[in-house]
Design goal:
eleven-stranded antiparallel beta sheet, six-stranded antiparallel beta sheet, 39 strands, about 40% strand
């Protein structure tokens, strides 16, 4: 009689345990990455009242007579390999693990040991470490080695990912090494009539991130033949000081005393930076009121509407008057311009030979594309490194030489308007542009766990990689609370290094969290069967008590 009582008590205790598990599952229905548990019952030892007997020649055998002594909790199994649904958060540091072949876990450190979690809600703590938002446990991963100049991941023993350390807060500047000019050159653009030519510029950076502006002048030599020149006019720093002029003055000072004049030394200095020394012939339009005639003996005769004047190598003079005209008065060429030759252009134009330091640009007169810059090709070198603050120690100069590409210039009719623009960088818009010092503007995590820093200068730098742990028997991990687990003898060991999550096709999805894998419909169904089981076991005790009462009443 007493056996049924204890069987009922065992049933009550076991069903209460199952209800405890169900209650824990339901209470954690909104816990990030929570894994539900299930209870498996098993019967306990049996009392044998009669042993089994074997069969004989005249009589069959009998089975053993056994009476069970109740039920117990056989196992509580965690559904750890079943992933929860995705919850979108939009936070770049919220990460959901997507498993392909193996269940993956983040490795976090609680200050004394590495433990494991599926809850990927992270933040940057006060020391710049990536940490769990709920516990502050530090997320572990692999560091980078940037001794080669480009950061690479070193897959060694995991360590805290301090992504916001001082060296990661800024991205080093880069010197500009490429530039280009593009757009339309229209020979009828009146900007070519200015003495300074058609001035274009572009900004560029040195190795320290300082900004400079290089100004160039496009000049028309002969528009009908597609001949132009380009020369460097100035290089201004951020204080608007012309460092090109500083270099020229320094060069002239260091080389004065030889056979060359100051003007020749200036041309030598300028040609070191950009351009070739030559004397191209440029066509200038006569100012209003003047006309030009070439006499049979080759003499140039200028008419101002009243008198005729002949050129004597310096000015136009007339025997009938004391009036003279300079080239500046006739065609507007600047007074300080060195002119070494004057020739007839047309009745309203004059050709002047002016020594300069420049490069020729030649366009195809049929198709309009550039045929050559300088002697050949379409690129020219701007030796900006000579302007660096450490000159003449060139390897340490802050400025780098810049290769300028002119291939995108076209010589078209654009209604008298040229559209030439100068740009730092190659024609692809990214190569060799140079960069100023960048400050960190954000963090991002790739599908493989690699952490990148984004900077204000456009750089993206690899800062580290989140490692994951995999176990032969993930269900054997021990829950320690706070959504964390630790290894047991039956789960397998963590080797201290971890694995790359992408090795088996798994991934990390940012901006998402893994929800609990609790199935409320199953939990409520289990709750009903547990309630009824508990109720039935309580009836065992009630009925057994009634039978005992009847037994006691026999003495009356």
């Amino acid at each position: 009689m007493m056996r049924s009582l204890f069987s009922g008590v065992a049933g009550l205790k076991t069903h209460q345990t199952k209800m405890d598990v169900i209650g824990n599952n339901i209470s954690n229905v909104n816990t990030v990455a929570f894994k539900s548990s299930s209870t498996t019952f098993s019967d306990i030892m049996y009392q044998t009242t009669s042993q089994a007997s074997g069969a004989t020649a005249t009589r069959g055998g009998t089975n053993a007579k056994q009476i069970g002594l109740g039920v117990t909790n056989g196992a509580t199994k965690i559904s750890i390999t079943s992933s929860g649904a995705a919850q979108s958060t939009g936070d770049a540091l919220d990460i959901r693990l997507t498993d392909t072949n193996t269940t993956n876990f983040f490795v976090v450190n609680n200050g004394s040991e590495n433990v494991f979690t599926r809850a990927g809600s992270f933040y940057i703590d006060g020391n710049g470490n990536l940490a769990m938002t709920t516990t502050g446990y530090l997320v572990m991963g692999w560091q980078t080695d940037d001794t080669s100049g480009t950061p690479v991941i070193v897959k060694d023993t995991v360590s805290p990912l301090r992504v916001m350390q001082a060296k990661n807060l800024t991205s080093a500047p880069e010197a500009t090494t490429q530039a280009n000019f593009s757009g339309v050159v229209d020979q009828y653009d009146d900007q070519f009539d200015a003495s300074s030519g058609y001035v274009r510029s572009f900004n560029f950076y040195d190795n320290l991130g300082y900004t400079y502006t290089a100004k160039f002048a496009l000049k028309r030599m002969d528009g009908t033949e597609g001949r132009y020149t380009i020369e460097l006019k100035s290089v201004l720093n951020s204080d608007n000081r012309d460092i090109l002029e500083d270099y020229i003055k320094e060069y002239v000072q260091n080389n004065t005393g030889g056979t060359k004049t100051e003007a020749e030394l200036r041309q030598d200095a300028l040609s070191n930076i950009f351009g070739q020394q030559h004397a191209p012939q440029a066509t200038y339009s006569l100012l209003k009121g003047f006309s030009l005639t070439k006499l049979a003996d080759g003499t140039l005769q200028l008419n101002d509407g009243t008198n005729n004047y002949t050129y004597n190598g310096t000015v136009f003079t007339s025997t009938g008057t004391t009036t003279t005209y300079t080239l500046t008065q006739v065609c507007g060429v600047p007074a300080d311009t060195t002119v070494t030759g004057v020739a007839y252009g047309s009745s309203d134009s004059i050709k002047l030979t002016i020594p300069s330091v420049s490069y020729d640009l030649k366009f195809d007169t049929k198709e309009g594309f550039l045929t050559s810059a300088g002697d050949e090709g379409s690129t020219l070198m701007f030796n900006a490194s000579l302007l660096g603050p450490n000159r003449p120690n060139l390897p340490e100069a802050a400025l780098s030489n810049i290769n300028i590409d002119f291939s995108k210039l076209m010589n078209y009719d654009n209604s008298g308007t040229s559209t030439v623009v100068g740009n730092k960088g190659a024609t692809d818009g990214t190569t060799g542009t140079g960069k100023k010092l960048g400050t960190m503007t954000g963090l991002s995590v790739g599908n493989d766990g690699r952490i990148f820093g984004s900077y204000s200068n456009g750089n993206t730098v690899l800062l580290g990689q989140i490692a994951v742990a995999q176990f032969a028997n993930a269900s054997g991990l021990e829950e320690i609370g706070d959504n964390c687990y630790k290894t047991t003898l039956n789960s397998g060991e963590f080797d201290g290094i971890g694995v790359d999550i992408s090795a088996d096709g798994s991934a990390m999805n940012t901006g998402q969290l893994e929800m609990a894998n609790v199935d409320l419909s199953s939990e409520f169904t289990d709750m009903i069967t547990t309630q009824r089981g508990f109720q039935a076991n309580s009836r065992i005790i009630t009925v057994s008590d009634t039978m005992l009462e009847e037994l006691i009443n026999l003495k009356r």
